[in-house]
Design a protein that fits this description.
Elements (H helix, E strand, L loop, with lengths): L3 E6 L8 H15 L3 E6 L9 E4 L5 H15 L3 E5 L5 H8 L4 E5 L11 E4 L14 E4 L23 E5 L8 H11 L7 E6 L6 H9 L4 E5 L3 H7 L2 E5 L3 H7 L4 E4 L4
Parallel strand pairs: 1-2, 1-4, 2-3, 4-5, 5-6, 6-7, 8-9, 8-11, 9-10, 11-12
Helix pairs in contact: 4-5
Length: 260
């Protein structure tokens, strides 16, 4: 494959990093096949290791015009979009471009007329998708980081270590609330709590202040997350893409919905 593939995705403390993480996983696979991958993003500093063309904050129409000009200049043969900001009208416009258009979806909130729609979620095959797109649905099409492929199945008989992870940003400030609860109830004292602190947490000072008073809490700053998942017996996590990584590691998880 000698194709030039453009990926439109963002990631920051306001929207989280889930879109970028799965697009980087997809980009790695395309590169293995010999393709050249270029990201089009408002957050170039958060996309390490790849060529990035920066987009400024503009209206949808203005951004679409700029993206189309970039695609022509790049001579791209494929555009992959992973963003909740795209309306049906914007995706219809992308579907009319003279290249292969792909949208990565989670919501099924309108008809889709790009060439392909990918939804790798477990629930995706049961959604009533509409439109002219070809729909690739279910975990067969799940976009997951390479290190989570082929993790050996395990069964932990006891429960001692608990993982708390709410992504790279914890946009809803849930982690401090959980720590306050743990501090208030003595019967949680037999468990050891491993708290993942993401790179753009805005609540870091509060988390560190609460953890300082808890003898059974360890903060992990940007850890090797797979190793930490495999070490822990159970998890409390945001119900996002991390759900599937925890499942791959065989970690029973209490999920918290943080985004509609």
């Amino acid at each position: 494959m000698s194709e030039i593939i453009a990926i439109r995705a963002d990631g920051n403390s306001e929207i989280g990093f889930g879109h970028l993480m799965r697009m980087k996983a997809l980009a790695r696979e395309f590169i293995k096949l010999g393709a050249e991958v270029i990201f089009l993003s408002r957050n170039p500093d958060n996309i390490g290791g790849y060529r990035v063309l920066q987009l400024e904050r503009q209206s949808g129409d203005e951004e679409d015009q700029l993206v189309e000009e970039m695609l022509v200049s790049l001579q791209a043969g494929m555009l992959i979009i992973d963003s909740y900001k795209y309306t049906q009208e914007r995706l219809d416009r992308a579907g009319q471009l003279p290249l292969l258009s792909v949208y990565v979806d989670d919501l099924n909130n309108h008809p889709f007329n790009t060439d392909f729609v990918v939804n790798g979620n477990l629930y995706a095959p049961g959604l009533p998708y509409r439109g002219r797109a070809r729909f690739l649905l279910g975990t067969k099409y799940l976009l997951m980081r390479e290190e989570f492929a082929g993790v050996p199945i395990r069964f932990n008989k006891g429960m001692k270590h608990v993982l708390i992870t709410f992504g790279a940003a914890d946009m809803e400030n849930i982690t401090p609330g959980i720590l306050h609860v743990l501090k208030s109830y003595e019967h949680f004292g037999d468990l050891h709590w491993h708290v993942v602190v993401g790179p753009v947490f805005r609540n870091l000072a509060e988390i560190e202040a609460v953890a300082k008073d808890c003898h059974n809490v360890t903060l992990h700053y940007n850890p090797a997350i797979k190793n930490l998942m495999e070490f822990c017996d159970i998890s409390i996590s945001a119900a996002g893409s991390t759900t599937y990584e925890l499942a791959a590691c065989g970690v029973p998880t209490l999920l918290v919905i943080v985004a509609d």
